[in-house]
Hints:
By secondary structure, the protein is of the alpha/beta class. The protein has 50 helices and 32 strands. The strands form nine sheets. The chain has a seven-stranded parallel beta sheet with strand order 3-2-8-9-1-11-10, with helices on both faces. A hairpin with a 2-residue loop joins strand 15 and strand 16 (559-562). Helix 28 runs antiparallel to helix 29 (687-698), helix 30 (700-708) packs across helix 31 and helix 35 (863-872) crosses helix 38. The N and C termini lie far apart (75 Å).
Amino acid sequence: MNREWTKQQLNSIYSTDGSVLVSAAAGSGKTAVLVERVINLITRKYNPIDVDRLLIVTFTRAAAAEMRQRITEALNSMLEDDPYNSRLLMQKQLLYNASISTIDSFCGNIVREYFHAAGVSSDFRIADEGELEILRNQALDKSFETFYETESKEFSSLLDAFSSKGGDTKLRETVLKICTFLSTQPFPNKWLDDMLSSYGERSVADSIWGKIIIDYSVPAVNHAVNLTENSIKLLDDDQKLKEKTIELFESDLVFLNELGKRLLSANWDDIVMHLSSFKSGRMSAPRGYKDNPLKLAVSSNRDEVKSTIKQISSYFCRSEAEACAEFSELESIVAVLFELVREYIKEFDLLKSKKNILSFADVELLTVKLLAKPDEKGGYIKTPQAYEISERYDAVIVDEFQDVNDVQNLIFNCASNDENNLFVVGDVKQSIYGFRQAKPQIFINRKESYQKFDERNPVYPATIILDKNFRSRKEVCDTVNFIFSRLMTKQVSGMDYTADERLNTGAKYPESDSCDFEISLIEKSAFEDEDYVEIEARHIADKIHKMMGSGFTVKDVNVQRSVTYGDFAVILRSTKSKANKYVNVLAECGIPAYCEEKENFFDALEVKILLNILRIIDNPTLDIPLLSVLCSPLYGFTPDELSLIRSNDRYSNLYTSLVKFSKTDKKAKDFLKELSDLRAYSCISTVDELIGKIYETTALGAVTSAVRGGESPLQNLNLIRVYARNFEANGFKTLSDFVSFIDNLINNKTAVPASSSINPTTLNGVRVLSIHKSKGLEFPVCFIADAAHEFNKTDLKSDVLIDSYAGLGIKRRQGICRYNTLPRLAVEIEISKNEIAEELRVLYVALTRAKEKLIMVASIKNIEKYLSNLYSKLVFESIIEPYTVERCKSICDWIMLTALVNPSLYELRKTADFSATPVTLSQPYPNWKLEIIDKRSDVLSTGTENSLDFVMNLAQQTEQVSDEFNYGDLLKKNLDFKYKNAEIMSLPQKVSASQIAHNQNEDYFDKVLTKPTFINRSSASSVKRGTAHHLFLQYCDFQLARDDINSEVERLMLRGRLTEEQSRCIDSVKLSELLHSELFDRIIRSEKIYREERFTVKIKASEAFEDYANISSDAYVIMQGAIDLAFVEDGKLVIVDYKTDRVGDIAKLVSLYKKQLELYKQAMEQSTEYKVKELIICSVHLNRYISL
């Protein structure tokens, strides 16, 4: 094949001497590698393998068909070059019988082959979900009836434990929940036995639940310790605040360190006793420190610490004796519950056996039963059938291995040659099917147990890493790497995002300055009367219009072309009730868009009408179905007509009234004639044939297509005929049976997806879809929308929780209240941990769909408070701890945490905390852009003018036609209303001194409109040098620097104040001259020096903004900032501001920064007891200073 393979890809193709796991990153070409490996195995010169001796398993039929097709095409291509090659010709023939299938198909074949050993009939069929739902309810009724008849005290206790307003409904739901879970366990009965024995544990710390709680608490305590140490370190910058609060923080630290030791000792009662001794206390600050940034920072840290301790205390709220007593009480309840579960499974299997049906889960479990038996060590023993199957295959190849569960993993192991000829491919970071019981830990464990492949000295089993991403441009890959290197850790997701997991750019794209990752935060409070989903959609529409208008281009194969609507995707965590809103708003803004959100089949208009027709054919005396059909578009009876029908016969059913009315009304007579003909036909036809007759007689398809539009109505009507044919094939014949079957499905709320007529390949529109639907797809530009939507934690509120590792946890009932139990708390921790890990992988899938550009859109209420809260969770201002990641509530939380530690968004850090310092990273980082939308005009420009014109026209029309009251004048009056303080509506609450100065200084624009760095090659290094000089002057000891500047530079580097690169940038000669100047003589002689002194003061709006100079208002704004240096001289302050601008004349700095220093003067006089006597600008570049 004419393709260039990477070294890792070649290793994946040709390493065939043992078991191999390929960890394939997103966009790494794993499917192509898989196909090429198969081709190599069947065509190589030495020891080739016939294709029918390969077992190739995928997870969808489409993937299996594609795999077979690709292999066929590869063989055909090789035969074109060598048409008489007997080996190739034979493989082409064998391919028809090759085992290339889904796991369900493979298991089905095994069970049919060994049906006698499995105890089933060889001609079993797979039941549809609707049929199984009915049988489940029948089996529940039968098993509960059996237990009710025993009248045992144990069962009564079980009923009491789960009783509710719905009687035994909760218990029935619990039985179904446990059985659904057991279908993914290789040995269900063993799991039940092991789980029950866990309740017999008499040492809490040694129990599975105690271990989970302790393991959770240790990193939580470490997090609290780090925050407390960080606060103590911060207090060193303010002695006054430190003296007032240090005792409280040191007390917290002693408590936390002791708690950490007790957790490690695992003495339950000691931990409980120590936690009960915690005294939260209240942090009191000196007078005047209410809004002090440092005080707010340490206070926020302590609030987080108290919250953490409170969370831990909730797990250790019972003593050892109390917990063991709880175990004992729960053991008797769980024992009866498991007996009931076993009885239900027996009844359910019996019902399925009578109908000769199985579910897909049954087939997998029967396959396990045929291939393996549990051993005493928790492992398995292969059966004779397993050895027979192993002999058939020289290689077992599994795609998407990250999505297997315990049952499937055991099947693959048994089908292989003692796990020595397995080739599995997947990306554990894309395992997002936990709701189907997929276990990514299987992939992780296998990967960690295998050695990394070395082609010079191959040792098997081996792991090969495919890290080249051939989908996305560098900006996307760098963004994904930056985010997940800080979020994905072993504690959070079971694995670290190491160099092996990073995306290395393999795709070639032209350079672009418009592909940086963008973050759009929408302030919800600015749009309180609007649906935030619609606001987000309008903002996305605005972005799309701008990108298309600006000439944004995308790469299409090897050609750059203008972006089209079809290049955009809006990806949502959940599309439920939202996708159509995005589509509709985009359409209103002139952007074609579509989504594939399927409605429930039974909610479709055409299906409702058809089912009601079938009901009245079966029984015309049913009033509601008959009324529905009469009012439908097919017959169009009006309310007046229906009133006439009932007025003549008010006490009979509707059908009788209609018969009487038909004697004088032709419309009613025609309807009854049609109904009579259909009823007569139903006696001699199948249900499928009857439905066809209904379509022919009523033109239902044409009418509903006209009403709804599109092809969906016709496809849904065809689909119901398929259901009818399947129903008849199962032995049912009558219309009554079919109607009852459908009604049971509806009553049981069985979800049956409706048909979709959308073909994405034929539409040029923005696609709105869920992250799960986007898996395997790619788009040039992706919007990750509704990112602030909180993770779904509904399942954790259930009274019963179940996990394969933590087991079963149930609430305990006392009187009318239900209380959490320690086992349930532990299971909740474990499930929550797994869910967070999955959400992180879901985010990875979302971000890796983009080829060229990523944009995140989130709606937040009170953005400033939100950012401050996130910032307080950072340890030492830049470290995101695993515990913090686990406690995040949305995708936005994770993205914004990483944004706060991205050096390119320093202004964001300042917004979160004005005392924040820049983050210094030793490695390159991606450039990100942030946009905060807090004005209606930012997102509502599209269509707003037209809407206003419409309202004004309406007002004029109303004015013309109204006689009694002039509503037009009232409407215009309301529209023209102006708030009395409208002039200050756009006034910001908080600004920085530099922002005010720059906004008012026209010369500043000359500064910002200089040559960009990509034109001026020397500017980048100049900026680095300027930053290094500024940091040196900020932290150095002036006297030590005078004595030996190089030694002082080295000292600051060792203390972490300067990086190695910054230390090399420092011009020691120039700085030494400056330090020996008269200015620094004055500074060193000063009795008091302020360095990087931060302030928060209140100033009049007119002083901050020239636009408000002539406005009569008492409005104030909060001004924050920091001065580089100030020193006391003769009882007054002298302010010094370092400037690193590369100017030729120091007078230029005066014109640029005079306003800023005047604001500094005002601020320092407010925040200190000193008057300012002098303002000095110190130019590091010119090695000069000037007094203003």
